Amino acid sequence: HPPPPPPPPGVDPSARIGHRVSLSDGVHVGPNCVIEDRVALGEGSIVLAGSFIGAHSTLGVECMVGPNVTILPGITIGNRVRIHPGAVIGADGFGYAPHQGRHHKIPQVGGVTIGDDVEIGACSTIDRATMGQTVIGRGTKIDNLVQIAHNVRIGKRCFIAAEVGISGSCRIGDEVVMAGQVGIAGHLTIGHRARLAAQSGLYGDVPEGADYGGTPARPHRDSLRGQAAMLKLGKIIRDLEALVKERRQGG
Length: 251
What we know:
Strand order of the largest sheet: 1-4-7-10-13-18-21-24-27-30-32-33
Strand content: 25-35%
Number of helices: 1
Helix content: 10-25%
């Protein structure tokens, strides 16, 4: 099934292009796009209608930015990255300090670095770091509606399904698989090639190569045994109640 032909190179007249923008050969910028100052777009990259790329951001060669994508200032994106509609890259991390009855915002002054051959699903969000970089490793694939918080570092060739939420400062190894709706608490480490079952809730580190599931997450076989035991609880409770009633009547 061949891909559709790319749009022709050029900048739509309705697009707004800032100062000192570098547009390499074959770049397409669609209708109503905004490209701010000092942005660099690599050869053959495509930015479709209504998207925004903030100042001092860089995209490599042959990137595809879908409609209505927001890439905020100071973001570095590698080669052949594909970003689906509605994604937001580089929004402020969720950082506040309580003081005298108010939540005071902590400035989020870091950036986001996305490696080559990454794919980011529709309406997913990757927050900028408080300081330093939020990092997505080469070849990682991210599904729709995924939230990646500030200062997270994700390794190479990971596979992250829909509605996963990764809290701040987590470290994810290479080739990790996360099924749908996995939730990961902050500052955890997930080892290389770990696999996390759907709806797992993680509150502790996961060893390299481990399969985890459940909430709180534990080794997947233990999680399955726990679920099987839960299904038996109804009968156990009924039998226990009958035994207590029998003893009371006999006493």
